[in-house]
Specification:
The structure is a single chain. By secondary structure, the protein is mostly helical. The protein is built from four helices and no strands. The N and C termini lie close together (11 Å).
Length: 104
């Protein structure tokens, strides 16, 4: 699935995901070492929050672009999820946070 037609956006998304996975690995190692888990989260936790904030901004921009120009034919997953999100009569309400979690 293509998130964005802009190559720069896809490079940012891939870079953010790779960076986040590296940070999670470091936090996980600290978690395995018992008492050092507090230290590992203290060192890498803020960086993990920064990476997720950047990823959130990118996804928000992509969602807004998709909302501005919805596809009538050849709907993709994002179009379908946005329709469900905007449906006020839906049995299950989907928030923007839910959409971003699915896209992650």
């Amino acid at each position: 699935m293509r998130y964005s037609n802009e190559c720069d956006e896809s490079v940012k998304i891939i870079g953010s995901v790779k960076e986040f996975v590296k940070i999670l690995g470091k936090i996980w190692i600290g978690d395995v070492l018992g008492p050092l888990k507090i230290l590992a989260f203290w060192i890498y936790g803020r960086h993990a929050i920064d990476v997720t904030s950047r990823y959130d901004e990118i996804l928000e921009k992509v969602l807004k672009q998709h909302e501005a120009s919805p596809k009538i034919e050849n709907e993709d997953l994002m179009d379908i999820l946005l329709k469900v999100h905007q449906d006020h009569n839906a049995e299950f309400k989907i928030t923007r946070t839910h959409l971003k979690a699915v896209l992650l």
